[in-house]
Amino acid sequence: MDGHDSEDTKQSTADMTAFVQNLLVQMQARFQTMSDSIVSKIDEMGGRINELEQSINDLRAEMGVEGSPSPLPPSKQNPSEGKQEGSA
């Protein structure tokens, strides 16, 4: 009977080994899929950031041509007007 128990133990160990190997292969495939997805999204975000930077540079160039200081003085005048009215 000891020989029979030994064979069952060997079979059980082989089954467990095969199960664990299969599980590891599945996990590796899932991690690879997730990794590919993350890299793809990072690349997409990089492209969007580049487009955003280009848009900002285009807007800066347009503002430089049109003369952008005009919006700034009214915003500076509004707080000072409020202070003058409050102190009077």
Global shape? rod-shaped
| Mean pLDDT metric | 80
Q: Ends: how far apart?
A: 108 Å
User: Gyration radius, to the nearest Å?
Assistant: 34 Å
Work out the number of β strands.
Answer: 0
Please estimate the helix content.
over 70%
Instruction: Give the class from helix and strand content and strand pairing.
Output: mainly alpha
Largest sheet: none
Order of helices and strands: HH
SS summary, helix count: 2
Poorly predicted residue ranges: 75-88
Fraction of residues in β-strands: under 5%
Textual characterization of the structure:
The protein has 88 residues and is mostly helical. The protein contains 2 helices and no strands. Residues 75-88 have low confidence and may be disordered.
List the helices and strands and how they pair.
Elements: H1 2-66, H2 72-87
What key phrases describe this protein's structure?
rod-shaped; disordered C terminus; 2 helices; 92% helix
Task: Write a short abstract of this structure.
The protein has 88 residues and is mostly helical. The protein is built from two helices and no strands. Helix content is 92%, strand content 0%.
